[in-house]
Amino acid sequence: MILILSSKFQIQNSFMLFNKLTITKVHQGLKSKEFSATELTSAILEQIKKRDKEIGAYLTVAGDSALSQAKKVDEKIKKGEEIGILEGVPVAIKDNILVKDIKCTAASKILENYIAPYDATVIKKLKKVGAVIVGKTNLDEFAMGSSTENSAFGITRNPHDLERVPGGSSGGSAAAVAADECIYALGSDTGGSIRQPACFCGVVGLKPTYGRVSRYGLMAMASSLDQIGPLTKTVEDAKIVLEAISGKDGLDSTSVDITTRTVLVANRYEDSPRSKQDIKIGLPKEYFIKGLDPAVEKVIKKAISKFEQMGAEIIEISLPHTEYALAAYYIIMPAEVSANLARYDGIKYGLSEKGDNLLDVYLKTRQRGFGQEPRRRIILGAYTLSAGYYEAYYLKAQKARTLIKKDFEEAFKKVDVLITPVSPTPAFKIGEKIDDPLKMYLSDIYTVPINLAGLPAISVPCGQVGNLPIGLQIIGKHFDEERILDLAQ
Amino acid sequence: MKLSKQQVEHVAKLARLGITEKEKEKFRKELSAILGFVEKLNEAKTEGVEPTAHITGLQNVTREDESGMTNQESREKIMKLAPKRKNGYVKVKAIL
């Protein structure tokens, strides 16, 4: 009797630690029956209950459906069937990605009661491999922001320092991973929204090449820039999730099948694998300038010298048009935003205010439904696209985009990857930048050019300043995720 | 580039965005600052440079011109989301 009690106590005790595991460790544990999928999901739900009051990572927790999915996996294990690497593993989903029959708000009042009628392609893929969807995470409204302070439903706090922001816009996803409130998460990245929060929260965040992952079922912000990607505890995990969610999708015409090479994929890593010792790493000199916090620079430089000690060749290169990237981004992105957010009109779904006539319904619905940042960007985008300004702003920005893209093409003739900081500073204080939009925009300076060029990039933790994590950004050629993942590892 | 209050008002209406008097002034200031910042682009030498709209070089992806959504369950779910409905249609205020 006593023996049984004590072993039960031990299970209870270790039970609480399952939520800290990585995908690979969870898979081993489930396979060897160290713990069940139900126990794991319960541990995650328990951690959310305990920790999320102060963090605020989740907008919706889908406990019942998560547990019933976990049970299905356990039955399969009991029958001795093989399980896939993501089967039974709890995942958190950014609340701008549709999960059928679960609320999807984009952290906006205009979609406060919107229930997703279908699954995004990435969700369909994850469900097919048996993932356990735990809930939906907080974000800046419609993914517009760098701090998750623009959510209509409250802020998210950085698990490393509750007085600081988790970054954004995938701040809820990054904080959920960092606080062990899920095993991994999905986010979306338009100008840094996966990489910057990953950096601030000390987790791994990967923005895949534009077109590698289907955007079907992701609420569109800026369609020529948006990509879905993983936030994980290790680089190995990011690789596993990328494999599961990527691929050509008939429902997203910009998605690409890399195996049939419908696009030019020059000199991919898989065609010319080289060891870490032979790799050529480029350091863009325009990224190591005034404005970069010296403490951050020190951590980044130390990480780079480690690569050098391992035998990598470090080459200083130039991306001469870098200074135009942020300006081009803040024309192209709001222009696309103003078009994409036109669909929220109070007619088809979402909030609908009463009005005297149709125009009045539109004006009132969109006034009450959208927060400050979407409103600011809609007006800015409508302005730069309006008659008389289109050429001066939008067309000029698209031409600058070509120059930025060419900078990277030139650089990749000399080197295999580029290494830069992710953010000029560690996580900033809550409230520090929220009243100054331009100041907030400047925090995306190292991540935005990569979206404009459509390249893959990863943020990996590489050290700390005080108790705040610092991330290193590794940028690769188009569709060359494998090389940056391998180097990051 | 300095925006006037009238310009903010005009563009907001084009974008079907209701806006308060206080906001007009706030947005005028904030957007003028952002437009001032993006003016940097004027320095970029773009003569003879082609604009980039799509980054990986895909061209003209086509599909069969067929409706993808045919099942009743999805139809009902989508219809249920519309704030106003009548006889299986989405109801809209009279335009004329």
TrEMBL record, chain B:
GO biological process: one example: regulation of translational fidelity
Molecular function in Gene Ontology: asparaginyl-tRNA synthase (glutamine-hydrolyzing) activity; ATP binding; glutaminyl-tRNA synthase (glutamine-hydrolyzing) activity; transferase activity
Keyword Disulfide bond: no
Catalytic activity: L-aspartyl-tRNA(Asn) + L-glutamine + ATP + H2O = L-asparaginyl-tRNA(Asn) + L-glutamate + ADP + phosphate + 2 H(+); L-glutamyl-tRNA(Gln) + L-glutamine + ATP + H2O = L-glutaminyl-tRNA(Gln) + L-glutamate + ADP + phosphate + H(+)
Main enzyme class: ligase
Keyword Methyltransferase listed: no
Pfam families: GatC
EC identifiers of the protein: 6.3.5.-
Sorted UniProt keywords: ATP-binding, Ligase, Nucleotide-binding, Protein biosynthesis, Transferase
Membership in a protein family: Belongs to the GatC family.
Function: Allows the formation of correctly charged Asn-tRNA(Asn) or Gln-tRNA(Gln) through the transamidation of misacylated Asp-tRNA(Asn) or Glu-tRNA(Gln) in organisms which lack either or both of asparaginyl-tRNA or glutaminyl-tRNA synthetases. The reaction takes place in the presence of glutamine and ATP through an activated phospho-Asp-tRNA(Asn) or phospho-Glu-tRNA(Gln).
Assembly behavior: Heterotrimer of A, B and C subunits.
Stated name of the protein: Aspartyl/glutamyl-tRNA(Asn/Gln) amidotransferase subunit C
Organism from which the protein derives: Candidatus Portnoybacteria bacterium RIFCSPHIGHO2_12_FULL_38_9
Gene name of the encoded protein: gatC
